[in-house]
Design brief:
The structure is a single chain. The protein is of the alpha/beta class and about 200 residues long. Helices cover about 45% and strands about 10% of the residues. It contains 10 helices and 5 strands. Strands 2-1-3-4-5 form a 5-stranded parallel beta sheet. Helix 5 runs parallel beside helix 10 (about 185-190), helix 7 crosses helix 10 and helix 8 crosses helix 9 (about 165-180). The longest helix is centred in the middle third of the chain and has 15 residues, at about 105-115. The radius of gyration is 19 Å and the shape is elongated.
């Protein structure tokens, strides 16, 4: 019997700043690989593309203000993109995400939003089978956990009582097995799979 293909939930980013949109799209696809991320440069573009099919909207502050009623009615699904962390720079009633901060902090905030909105991932569809499988050995998981907590190779070697060369080998194997290129991507993987508490990164 043929199985119907599962539709991936969709997120919309609505912002006229192309660079910000592309960067955020990349981060969101890392944080939530099961999501499809569509991007729009204006509210008119979003409106022309079935706006209610989206799970979440990541929208620049000015677009939310210009189209307040639409987003107010979809307040739980809307995350306002701000340029400052201060409460005074954020809209009450909406979740906010400051995009003007270092990548590591932005990832931490995105992971926090994902965990807060979808406690234990219960509102998210299941991860693809390949991502659910245990790919890493126990030792590699230990090394990964220490890497994303900010420890350097020498500190990891000391903590685990193994040689520096062994740590470097584990590091390479972890990145190769997971197909990841950066510590940021590794951090996302570790938090989303429950290997590291978000408060430790």
């Amino acid at each position: 019997m043929e199985q119907k293909p599962q539709h991936r939930p969709k997120i919309a980013i609505v912002d006229a700043n192309t660079l910000a949109v592309l960067g955020l799209r990349q981060l969101l696809q890392n944080v939530m690989p099961i999501m499809t991320v569509d991007t729009y440069g204006s509210f008119a573009e979003l409106s022309a593309n079935h706006p209610d099919c989206y799970f979440h909207y990541f929208v620049s502050m000015n677009i939310v203000l210009q189209n307040r009623q639409f987003f107010q009615e979809r307040q739980r699904k809307t995350i306002v993109l701000t340029l400052q962390l201060e409460d005074t720079a954020q809209l009450p009633d909406f979740h906010s995400l400051c995009i003007n901060q270092p990548e590591s902090q932005l990832i931490r905030q995105l992971l926090g939003l994902a965990q807060y909105a979808h406690g234990e991932g219960k509102h998210l569809p299941p991860m693809p089978q390949v991502l659910q499988q245990k790919i890493l050995t126990n030792r590699e998981i230990e090394v990964m956990s220490l890497i994303v907590q900010g420890f350097i190779n020498k500190e990891i070697a000391d903590q685990l009582n193994i040689g520096l060369a062994t740590v470097i080998t584990h590091r390479k194997n972890i990145m190769d097995k997971l197909g990841l290129k950066s510590v940021s991507a590794l951090t996302i993987y570790a938090v989303m799979h429950g290997y590291v508490d978000i408060n430790k990164i």
